[in-house]
Amino acid sequence: MLLSVVLSLVNVKARHGWSDKIFTSLLQVVHDLLPEENTLPKSYYQAKKILCLMGMEYQKIHACPNDCILYRHEFEQMSKCLRCGAPRYKVKDDDDCSSDENSKKGPPAKVLWYLPIIPRFKRLFANGDDAKNLTWHVNGRNSDGMVCHPADCSQWKKIDNLYPDFGKEARNLRLGLASDGMNPYGNLSTQHSL
Ligand SMILES: [Zn+2]
């Protein structure tokens, strides 16, 4: 119950672009309206913590503003892009002539919001009906030799043959990749796309 309430509230926040501050104020008001022993979070921070437990966590990864690299692994400590030289942080625009590099460091030039996929997959199995649907291709289906489901296709069977341990576990998920309108060479003036 608490999870679904918090999730719907966070959805409303996202839909209407409320700031974290507005959202926290709203939570406080609703919290005070409810009976004293209620467990509704009193701030956006607390609400986020509840959602993290649901497997809805995210990571923010700094990125080059020209999309060359992500500042992670061996690039984690770098302060400019090693390919195009663009700085990682915006420079604070003030009259302070301080020579200290760190004090001039503004917010990151670009941030990638990474939504780790494994917790989301685990979350899919938390609901009984969804869990049943996710294994339906093995447990609930009549296989009559006709191609009625991706599991009947040769590509699917090829994966089963190549990775038998993976293939025999019905709960393993397979991802399909589809793309439309992608511009593979980054040339946006071209008429063509894939
Ligand atoms: Zn770059």
Radius of gyration, taken over Cα atoms and rounded to an integer in Å = 24 Å
Provide the residue-averaged pLDDT: 85
**What share of the residues does DSSP label as strand, in percent?**
5-15%
The N- and C-terminal alpha carbons lie at a distance of: 44 Å
Walk me through this protein's architecture.
With 194 residues, the protein is mainly alpha-helical. 39% of the residues lie in helices and 8% in strands. The mean pLDDT is 85. The strands form two sheets. It has a two-stranded antiparallel ribbon. A two-stranded antiparallel sheet has the order 2-3. It is flat. The relative contact order is 0.08. The site of zinc ion has 7 residues, from loops.
Please give a handful of descriptors for the protein shown.
mainly alpha, 4 strands, 3 domains, 194 residues, two-stranded antiparallel ribbon, binds zinc ion, 9 helices
Write the layout of secondary structure elements.
Blueprint (H helix, E strand, L loop, with lengths): L1 H15 L3 H14 L10 H10 L5 E4 L26 E3 L9 H4 E4 L2 E4 L2 H8 L3 H7 L1 H4 L14 H9 L1 H4 L27
Antiparallel strand pairs: 1-4, 2-3
This protein binds zinc ion.
